[in-house]
Amino acid sequence: MFDPLDLYTPEEPPKDIHVVLERRQLLENEKSEDNILESYSNGDDEDYSMLSPLQVLDLPPPQTTPADILETTLILLGPSTQLNFNNEVPSIDRSEVTTEQLDELCHWNIINKPYSYLTTKDSLLTRLPSLSTQCSSGSPVKLLSYYTSILHRCENNPELTQLSTIVAKRIAELCGRTAQPSMTRDFRINNLEKTIKLYEPALTSDNLGHKTWGSSLVLANRIPTLENCSGSSKPRVLELGSGTGLVGITYTISHSNEFSQVFLTDLPEIVPNLRTNAKLNDLSTHNSVIADVLDWTNHDSFVEKYGDIQFDIILIADPIYSPQHPIWLMDTVKRFLKKNGEVHLELPIRTKYNKERETLWRIIEEKGLEVLEEDYEQGIDDWGQVEYIYKRLAYPSTN
Questions:
Q1: Whole-prediction pTM value?
Q2: Which of 77, 135, 178, 326 could make an S-S bridge to 143, C-beta 3.0–4.6 Å?
């Protein structure tokens, strides 16, 4: 069959045709990139992106993304500063990340993942912490897989040491409270304008005092409206087993006009962090705040240092962790409480410590203290909802 095209001989393409095609493709890429950048600079998709659910797949690929882009992403995936044991609201304050790093990450996402919903600074500062919170409280498997892929990339590569350090920290944060690294929490207390910041070192079984427990928050919420019933114009306040210092710090801030002297006390290994938290809340040079060791089993060193002093108010939150604690605690209260002073005690109602609580109630009565007020309260901590009991104690009035 005759085909007219058989008589047609096509012209040979110029030898430099590949150069022409490369230049054409380059121009098209530049035009496409300019269009993408222009559309995002106009904020065309910003409102929609903030409403769309963020997925782990929206993150930069772990194996092919430049290390500096991954580092910025991982920093922003860090946990939000927790507020009263609640981290649902993402933190906007990301002082670890510079404006230049945010700009670079935005630009990279616009070009390489334009539909990732992470193409503006606002989305980076809110959506990434939200994703971290969402995965931590739900199913962390996909995010954990993303982190381990980055960690695998860092193996045997000394140039990625910084990236490896950051991703290892993110992995620890997904492994539960007991595995989490050190953190700083925010606490907002009822009737107190100032937000209290507390640093918590990594939790270990032998340093439970490095953690803020829910009973401290519940008791702290009572402190700003606490009245000084002793009649002293300069009341002395003693917190026993201060831990991270939430209760005592709350008293110092909320009663600053009373010229009170507040002692934050705990074991030797806990006190350095107590001082850190006093400094964190601008109390390190406060003449009325003292953080020091007070051993419940031997008061001698404390008395030698501060004299034979007694206190108008004693604050205690969650002090019972062993069968001996009720005895030691009440011996200490007996030693340091003024005859017209008051004790404010907050305890979680843990089934495991029913016997210790009953021992404590018995010893309180044996020491001659009366229960002036008792209340049951609900609160939360890192392990969920907890019921607490509050007691206000004092010696019988001699009037």
A1: 0.72
A2: 135
